[in-house]
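Protein modeling request. Please complete all fields; requests missing the sequence field cannot be processed.
Requester role: graduate student
Desired output: 3D structure, token encoding
Chains: 1
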Amino acid sequence: MSFHIQEELKKLPDNPGVYIMKDSKGQIIYVGKAISLKKRVRQYFQSSSVKSTKVRTMVSHIKEFEYIMTDSEIEALILEANLIKKHKPKYNVLLRDDKQYPYIKITTNESYPRVIKTRKILKDGAKYFGPYTSGGAVNSTLDIIRDLYPIRTCKLKLEEGKQVRERPCLNYYIGKCLAPCMGNVKHDKYMEMINEIIMFLNGKEEKLIDIIKNKMNTASKNLDFEEAARYRDQLLSLQHILEKQKIVSTNIVDQDIVAMAKGTDDAIVQIFFVRNGKLTGREHFVITDIEGQSRKEILSAFTKQFYMGTAYIPKEILMEDEYEDIELVSRWLTQKRGSKVYIKVPKRGEKNHLMEMVRKNALEALNQYSDRIKRNMAESKGILIELKKILNLEYIPNRIEAFDISNIQGVESVGSMVVFEGGKKKSSDYRRFKIKSIEGPNDYGSMEEILWRRFNRAMEERELIRENKIGIESFSVLPDLIMMDGGKGQVNIALKVMKEFNLDIPVCGMIKDDFHRTRGLIFKNKEIKISKNSEVFKLITRIQDEAHRFAISYHRSLRDKRMFKSVLDNISGIGEKRKKALLRELGSIDKIRKAEIEELKNVEGMNIKSAESVYNYFRNKK
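Delivered output (622 residues):
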């Protein structure tokens, strides 16, 4: 059933909501929110309205749209941010580097909480602190916490006064854990440590220092000099941390300070995290493809996408520019935080001085980013020009596709295709193939199958493109060079497939020495030796390693699924829920096989009988 845009525009309601634009393939290309869906969506299709080049291009690709009505503007804002995060539409402003930033999680949903690093925020009753600027920053903080407090790191399910292990682990003997697993740690004493850690992570080090000083003095008065010395060491560590933190504000309030530097094609948004007047961290975000986007549009998109995923929202956010829906965003963040959040655009005084500092850092980050991109492009192009000379190719091999096969004695044979463009990995174009037509350990037959499937798909897509039925897809883009993980045999298989499809694509083989290390290339039946110190050799090694890694990881996942299904299905009392719980908690068949009864029993949904059943199965199995 065809979609008539003008007819559908007449049906739009005058309600708040989210609209979703789609192209001819049904792909979501833009998501937006509106106070009035009728007024906002119609604007896109009015020839008289002034539009940027990017918006005009987007509208030319819209073949249909959907909308979702909401009860309020805030609901529309939240839904818009969620849909953008999920679908990453082509024409929305996106945080392209979309890292999952690390947080520190305190598992306050457990009887004896742990303090761990995580990149996922769940609604599980735990406390989250962050985001941190890097995994290294989290690791350093965790090291400090574990030096200060002997808390557990194991995943055992613990209850007060209940012993779950026969003997404590090494951490207990080296003073890094009180061993609550032995059932002899008072819950109140343990939670006292956790509460102090929460104070530390909340930036209340001065208050924590006062508490520890009182404890040290009390221990000294009671002649417990060993305990007093431990508190003394904690004090010294905390004072050292405080000395390193830069005080940037006399305003003792938690703030995020956001500024941006905008280039022609890219922008850098810099954010400083100030807690209790002290600069605790900073981060920058790269935003690409910003043609036609104003500073205000970019800052608005950044604010919504960043705070949609962050666990902590400060009381005050200082923003470089005011944008259209800043009041709405403030109301949303207030709702999310549970208390008033102020978004301010400072014009003078200390806050404006702070903003200027962040703005300068954003500009410096943009300059470094631009210089690095240009430098990397120049280096990569130089390497590819050198590879062109070595192989005497007609063109620079900008797009290289490499293929590999993985199996163990012919079981679960899989193939991998990895793609390098401009000398860099292009992970979005990677493909995996489960071998369908070949049985047993036949690498040549398996390789022929995956190559045939890859290039047959290319021919089909290119035909559809000629008929204007689809746009350019990843398979329709042909490589400038094919690299096979292997020697003459694998190269000849590839050349045979190229001949079948009447394609003139050069093929070389990446050969290894007796120690399974990259040795050189096979091209036109000749081995080409390349200096191991050259950048070309390093690129070939990276490509070969990546093809092998990608094939092996797929093979292992299929093998583990097969083993998981076949092995655990044979154990009495282990159904689907228990299978999933065991794998989720312990991670692999091998760890399930090695687990003790107590460890198995503590897995969600397991009991002593089912734990003994799993334990005995693996111990009795030959």
